[in-house]
Structures are given as C-alpha cells and as structure tokens.
Amino acid sequence: MASEAVAERRSAGHRLAGLFHGRERLQVGALLAGPVGWLVIGYLGSLALLLVAAFWSVDPLSGATIKEFTLENFESLVNEPVYRDIVWRTVRTALLVTFTDAVIAFPIAFYMAKLASRRGKALLVIGILLPLWSSYLVKVYAWRTLLSANGAINWALDPIGLHGPGYGTTAVWLVMSYLWLPYMILPIYAGLERIPNSLISASEDLGASPFTTFRRVILPLGFPAVVAGSIFTFSLTLGDYITPRLVSNDQFIGNVIFSNVANNQPFAAALAIVPIVVTIAYLLVARRLGAFEHV
Amino acid sequence: MRLSKRSRWLLRAAVAVGLAFIYVPLIVIVIYAFNSSKILEWPPPGFTTHWFSQAFKNEAAREAFFTSLKAGIAASAIALVLGTLASLAVARHRFFGRETISFLVILPIALPGIVTGVAISNTFTQVLDVPLSLFTVIVGHATFCIVIVYNNAVARLRRLSGSFEEASADLGAHTWQTFRYVTFPGMRSALMAGGLLAFALSFDEIIVTNFTIGAGEQTLPIWIYSNLFRPHELPIVNAVAVLVILISIIPVYLAHRLGAEEGGATGGRAAGGGVETEATAVP
User: Fold this and answer.
1) CA B110, CA A270: separation in Å to the nearest integer?
2) Secondary structure of residue A65 in the 3-state scheme
3) Phi, psi of A68 (to 5 degrees)
4) Three-state secondary-structure class, residue A132
5) Who among A46, A133, A186 is closest to B283 (CB)?
6) Which residues in chain B are closer than 8 Å to A204, comparing Cβ atoms?
7) Does B155 fall in a domain?
8) Is B6 a member of any domain?
9) Strands A57-58 and A65-66, how do they pair?
10) Does the distance separating the beta carbons of B201 and A50 come in below 8 Å?
11) Residue B166: inside a domain, yes or no?
C-alpha cells in the first residue's frame, strides 16, 4: 500500500515535470508568475493607484476621501510658495549631498581599487559594507547626540574656541552625506576596479604626470560609476524624512507627505509624485551620462 | 599606479579620515550605551551595564523586538521564493522582456522609500480597505527585499555553468530533480547570503514601516523612534540601539563570509539602482 502510494506520488511528480519538459514558455511562465505578479500587479499597480489617488480629494467636513477627479492637490502644490520652497530645499540638499559624497568617496574608492593590497582591499570592503548595512535610524540618532549642545562635537571643538553646527540645515546636509557615503564608495570602487591597469601604465609610459593620468584616463573612465553611485545618494535624500526631523526643524518633501498621510491621503499621494518625477528625470540624465552602460 | 610617496600618504590619510568619519558616530553610541549617567553628556562620567538589563526588562522593547523578528523572517522568506524564481527565469531562459525584469525588481529600492511606503499604504487603506497591520509591513518589506535575493542568485547562476543542468537532463533527470540535485546545491550559499541580507534590511527598516504599520503595533526601529523624544528613556534607547547594530551587522558579516567562499555577495544593496552585474553584486 505504502509503496504504491509513494510510486503514485512520484509518478504525479514525474507527470508534472514531464509537462514542463521541453516546453520553455511554460517553464518561464511558471517561474515568473509569482515574482512578476507581485511586482507588476502589486507594486506597479500600487504606484498607478497612487497616481490616481493624487487626483482625489478629501471632504473638509467629514474627512472622507472623495474619489472624483480634481486638480486641487497639484494646484496648491504649485501655487503655495511654502511647498515650492520645500521641494526646492529637498532637491538642493539632494544635489549638495551627492556632490559632497562624490568628492569624499572618490579618493577612498581609488585607493581601494588601485593601491591597496589584496588583504587591505578585502578589509576595506567589509569595513565599508558593515556600516552601510547597520541600522539607518541608529546612525541618525548617533548624529543627534553628537550634534547636541553638550555632545561630543562641541566638547571636541571647545578647546580650540569653536563650536559645532548644532541642529539645522547644515546638520541635515552633514548627516545625509554621512548616511549615504558607503553607497557612493562601493559603485565607484567597482567601476575603478574595471579600469585595466595597463591603460594607466600606458598613460604613464607616454609621459603623463600622475595628475594628467588621473584627469585624462581615470576620471573619464570612472565617471559613469560616480553617476551610478549618485543615483543612491540622490534618491535616498529625496525620500528621507527622519533625518530632517531628528537634526533640524526644516521641512522636506518626506515630512509633508508623512504629516498628510493620516488625514489627507490624496494630498500625500500628490506630493509623492514629486520625488517619483524627480527620480525618473535623474535616472534619464544618469543614463545619458553612461551610468548603466557597463555596470 | 606609480605615485609619489607624498601622494600615496595623502590618499592613505584620506582613507583614514573617511573611515573615521564612518565609524566615529557608531562608536559614540556604543560608548553611550555604557554611560553611568542618566543624562547624555560628553564625555560620559562612568561605566555601567545597567541599561542593558533595563532594556531586556522593558516589555514594549521586547515585544517590538519580536515584531521585527517576525517581519524580518516573513519578508525574507517571501523574498527568497520570489527572488529565486525570477533569477532562474532570467539566468536560464530567453524570453521577451527579460531585460525588464531586472529593472522591475530594482524599482522598489531605487525609488525613494517614502514612495513605496505611501503607495502600499494607499492601496491597502484607500482601495482594498484592508487595515494596516504587521501583514502590510511584511508585504512592504518583501517588495524591496526581492532585489537582494535576486541579485545574489543571478550573480551565482551566471557563474555556475548551465552545462551541468544540461548533463543532468541528458542523464534522464526531470526538471524538478535537476533543480533539487544540481541547480539548488550550487545556489545554496548565495541564497543563504541573500536571505540574511534581506533579513538585515527588513529588521532595521523604518521609512516604509512607518507608513504600513497598524496603530498600536511597533517594530524595534519604531520603538526607538518613538522614544527618542523622551529624555528619561534615552539610556535604554542607547542600549537597544547597540543591540540593533549588532543584529543588523552579524547577518551581513555572515553573508559576506558565505559569499567570499565562492565569490561574494554583499553588494546587493548597493547594487540596487541598476547596477546589477557580478562585479557590483560582488564588490
């Protein structure tokens, strides 16, 4: 009995496997049904619904969502200077953080890719990876204590008669540059690793000074990797609302979205369209600059 | 590259300063966790492990810890299944729209977290009329964790030759047997690495969580966040923060070791935004 049942089960498994045998379309379909269903219907569907909800409104008296088309949300987004300021502040910070990280990351990545020993390389990679993955919130909180009035920064600067930036716009820039730095270092490192050493040697043999080699060989070949890294620094800054809340009184796009999500979901949806549009515009520019070409 | 001694030293100094910049804040939090004073002042006046025992005794923190654990395990399990399936399709088959899959998988992590959070919360509350809960958190986390498993699995499958699978089929194994005895053993360590990383990512996530969690429920990061503004809770928060750092770093270290055995994996997160080849999946 038992062995018969096993034989039957096995043959059922065989039959099912036989069904897939040689039928590539069926195989691909079975493999993709789950992930594509989840991401297309679930995720892209949600994004589409978000776009639709951005044109809804909320009844000011009852607080209920009115599911009728209106441009109200976008009108107030464009017409009220306070929102224009917030969008501009967020985008400006994102650009500034990206630039700062690129400048700090490049020499570190260059050292890792071209000068460090095998062992040193491995240590540096793990040394950059671990903080990248360690809790985002704890890192922001660490800065909140560092920057506080009786925190370590003021303590360290006090003997030389200086004091730290305290909470505010500078603090947001500093903390975000800190948070996303590893996201910039790793892609640049990977990009520089791919530059053949023979190209650098050729440049040197032809008499170029190290600076010329850097400017004419390493920088142009490494630049797409910088752009690839900048996608993270830029997009992560656009979406962050915890850092501004913890180290400043500034409002960023994220803060306004978060404060509206409970009472005025349609307006929050309309606001969320802004980072989507800005990110897509940025990705298109990044593609023109070659960020996706050999990565 | 030939560089003068001076330039070499300048670069080394830049690396040292960069690493110090990256590590000092984390070290400061670890020191604060052992601070004997109730007030956060620098330098701390003395040493104690009192706050760790207080943190373990804290009911809300403990509950939040288990909520985070559940969310992390469920989200990485879903991500493992979906990420593995997608990677098998992309690495082993040719079909129309194959290039789009990588883009689709990366999108939830390439778009700002707040967008994913609002979109999922909007769908559940406004359209499906499903109240927010731990379930909606898991859906959100699984969505952005798929890419981590996917990147690791695809990188591994590209390295493993497909000819073993062909040989297995030629020897009479059916599709499932080939997967079970040939493909899966080759992928196993990459999948473990991917699962660990997905767990680490989910465990300390707060941006999407904040939008998708139900009223009255807390993950550990949300517990920390809501106690940051209560000065008398801060010593316990410091101790919990150190535990969170450890819990998010240990899986990553293990994943890195697993990947290093056969050629690396932990770049998955940094490989999010369209950077998908082996070289960046394996920095």
Assistant:
1) 19
2) strand
3) -130, 150
4) helix
5) A186
6) 1-2
7) yes
8) no
9) antiparallel
10) no
11) yes
Amino acid at B190: A
Q: How far is A2 from chain B (nearest CA, A)?
A: 22
Residues B180, B275, A187: CA angle, nearest 5 degrees: 120
**Under DSSP, is residue A71 helix (H, G, I), strand (E, B) or coil?**
coil
CA–CA dist B105, B222 (Å, integer): 26
State the DSSP string of B13-32. HHHHHHHHHHHHHHHHHHHH
What pTM did the predictor assign? 0.85
Cis peptide bond prior to B283, omega within 30° of 0: no
B82 to A35: CB separation less than 8 angstroms, yes or no = yes
Structure-token pair, residue B155: 């990188």
Count of beta carbons in the 10 Å neighbourhood of residue A86? 21
* Pairwise CA distance, residues B177 & B169, whole Å: 9
The strand ranges marked E within B209-276 are none
CATH architecture assigned to A74-288 = Orthogonal Bundle (1.10)
Q: Which two tokens stand for residue B38?
A: 């109730």
> For residue B146, which residues of chain A lie inside 8 Å, CB to CB?
35, 38-39
Residue B36 lies in a domain: no
Contact A289, A237 (CB under 8 A): no
pLDDT tens track of chain A, all 295 residues? 455 555 555 666 677 777 776 677 888 888 888 999 999 999 999 999 999 999 998 888 887 888 888 888 898 888 889 999 999 999 999 999 999 999 999 999 999 998 998 899 888 988 898 888 888 999 999 999 999 888 888 888 888 888 888 899 999 999 999 999 999 999 999 899 989 989 988 998 998 888 888 889 999 999 989 998 998 899 889 989 999 999 999 999 999 999 998 888 899 999 999 999 998 888 888 888 877 764 4
Residue A57: which H helix or E strand, with range?
A: strand A57-58
| A196 three-class SS | coil
Q: Do B22 and A182 touch (CB under 8 A)?
A: yes
CATH at residue B224:
1.10.3720.10
The total domain count for chain B is 1
In chain A, domain spans: 2-53, 74-288
Burial of B278 (0-12, 13-18, 19+ CB in 10 A): middle
Among candidate residues B156, B240, B149, the one with its CA nearest the CA of residue B201: B149
Point out which residues pair with A57 in neighbouring strands. Answer: A66
Q: Do A197 and B93 touch (CB under 8 A)?
A: no
Which SS3 state, helix, strand or coil, does residue A247 take? helix
List the structure tokens of B22.
């990256």
* Structural domain harbouring B125: 54-281
ipTM confidence score: 0.84
Contacts of B91 (CB under 8 A, 6+ apart): B153, B154, B157, B158
Among chain B residues, CA nearest to A292: B274
Give bridge partners of residue B35 from the DSSP assignment. Answer: B47
